[in-house]
Specification:
2 domains, two-stranded antiparallel sheet, 434 Repressor (Amino-terminal Domain), 44% helix
Amino acid sequence: MRFADLLQSVRHAADLTQAELGARAHVARPNVAAYEAGRREPLFESAVSLLGAAGAEIVVEPPVMWSWTDGLRPYAVPSRLWRLAPEVALRRFAPGLTLWWSGPPRTFDMSQRAERCRLYEIVLREGLPADIEDVVDGVLLCEAWGDLVLPRGLAAAWAPLVHFGPAASVRVAS
């Protein structure tokens, strides 16, 4: 999303005029108009001030870093969990041949918990980091964690990410 569109969107959501937003952020109204029109780009500090004055929350997250488990079957493990937009996290998904390599092609409806759990099991077992980031939502993974059937090494590597205590467990595939 362009900054111009974002600024206009948050200003409208806050029900502010350009003059009111500018006054709150200590930015001249003509500059606010120029930013919203895309004629100018603000300095980072001005952008943060404008968004904050409109009540927007600014979140800066480090990139997800990936490592691999040891053993005969390595599994990809991220440094942290992430969120997907609802329309992405709950969409219909057709895995490619790298994820779904046996049986006829299939589409998963990720808005259905049972199908999402099955897809998460497949993607965590077979997926590369890009596949996992495309399909797995951190909050939905944490919610489903106790119902997933995963290999022991994979479950152990991911367990610290889902923030469960020792009482929580995941079923281990034989």
